[in-house]
Amino acid sequence: MTEQIAGIDPDVAPSGAGCVECDASGGWWVHLRRCAQCGHIGCCDMSPNQHGTKHFEATGHPFIQSYEPGEEWFYNFPTQEMFEGGPKLAPPHHHPLDQSVPGPRDRVPADWQSHLN
Length: 117
Description:
Blueprint: H1 20-25, E1 32-35, E2 41-43, H2 51-59, E3 63-66, E4 74-76, E5 81-83
Antiparallel strand pairs: 1-2, 1-3, 3-4, 4-5
């Protein structure tokens, strides 16, 4: 039996392939983060809109996991701790491999680096 961790639901699928709010507004992101409680995909704190952190602030959901290929780390917002490993979340475990970083390719401005936080 897998140990239950408050704030992590391993059965919830991710909300999609990209940041929910950026997709809705036509924005772009650098890296993606997945809420380990509800599956919300938000953009990282380097991204112009920082939707991953804003999701935590709005919901109190304490854990995110990287939604980048080859990365499995989690971050605990309340304690500000990062850790490797943890419960295996429902697939998919990262954005599509053909999705650009930053992305999506057609919405990233040519001077994207000047927009980083």
